[in-house]
Amino acid sequence: MAFLARHFRVLTQEQFKQELAASSFGRRACLVTFDDGWWDNSVHALPVLEKHGIPAVCFVATGYLGTDKTFWQERLTRLLCIAAGRDGCESELLRAVGLEGARRADPGRIRRQVRNFVTALKAQDRATVLGLIERLENALCDVPESRLLGADRFMSWDDLHALRRSGLVAIGSHSHTHACLTTLGYEGAREEFEVSRRELARNDVPDVIACAYPSGDADALVEAAGSDSGFALGFGTKSGFVAHSSEAMHLCRINMHESDSRSRPALLYRMLGLP
To answer: Could you give the residue ranges of the DSSP H alpha helices within the chain?
Structure first.
């Protein structure tokens, strides 16, 4: 954030919208965004944004705020990582993931293998995914829920309001249930967006103008559903820069991963959007 504050003109959401519409982006303009609504946005990100005076947009999945629920990806990842450290725990499933007998393996390697497996599951039907989670939960029934959740938890609505009170963070929609919108069709995607808007308005967050598509999954129907639900901006996860010719409901971003921050050169390389 110090690098952005020193070398870029970091835009507010409203400035981004206006300059996109007017085709007037100046040099080194950028917009900072966060997806999902994780609790660490308020605990860790906000103080850094305030320190450097950086505006941002936080896209939240309203069905998870203020609850103990988490996305199935995080739930399954944590279950698999715990199961990998137990001899004989769901050995057939762990063998399919390549984790059987990984008790003494490097935790980082285990997590990478699990993440690759979970990412591949996004193309599977929901029943298959929920079945895997149920099997692992039954096998790990003696593990405290607090350990299964770990740090994968969402903000409360009070946390969200603290972001807004900072005057730096605008709130956007990340749908309601974080479902893959391209599997829902136009009507299903529009319902996700409209429920999200209603929940935000009911909790004193009106006039939300931007959305981000869960996992970046969007097609023409999803983008139309977002626009028809009242959003002026729609962000995906396709890597790239926003140009004057970019479509307002089909905006690219540069996705930042934890691995990008392992060294300063790698972080700066990624921030500059280099392939």
So the answer is: 2-7, 13-22, 40, 46-52, 72-84, 91-97, 107-120, 126-139, 145-149, 157-165, 185-202, 220-228, 264-271
